[in-house]
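Re: beginner question about structure tokens

> Can someone show what the tokenized structure looks like for a real chain? I only ever see the sequence side.

Sure, here's an example I had lying around. Input first:
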Amino acid sequence: MKAQTGGTQDTADMYTKENVLNQLLTAEGFYVETVANKIEATAEATILSAGMDVRQTGSINIPILSVSQGTGSGTAKLRRKAEGRGVVYKWQMSGDPFTDTSWADAGEGSLATFEVTGLRPVTRHWFRVAVITGNEQNEFSDPVTFVVS
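And the corresponding structure tokens:
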């Protein structure tokens, strides 16, 4: 109410408090996601017990790209829907938030799985992949995010 009837300072205070709240809620979401990613079998229960909603994915809609915890701290395992033989997968990653110019090559290979190492723990990272057939590279997948533990 003060933002409508108050002065410039009251409006500025309102936006500052809103920004702090958004940062706290985002941090809480990162924390719950990190804890849930540690044990896949109880991930849904962990998220629900934190009072948050679980994004549902149907079994028919197999994601083109998914990310899970890698073999150790600071690693992430990327999986892409396989395209068959004779293709190369180009993996890229970015920090949070990503921009058109923030993407860096993470690696290439003929397998539809790839493990990224050397990532900063408890940090959100973004990943995407493109398929290369012959000399032609397809567009990159939609980016997916993951909080590395």
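Each token stands for a local structural state, so reading them left to right follows the chain. The two ends are 42 Å apart (CA to CA).
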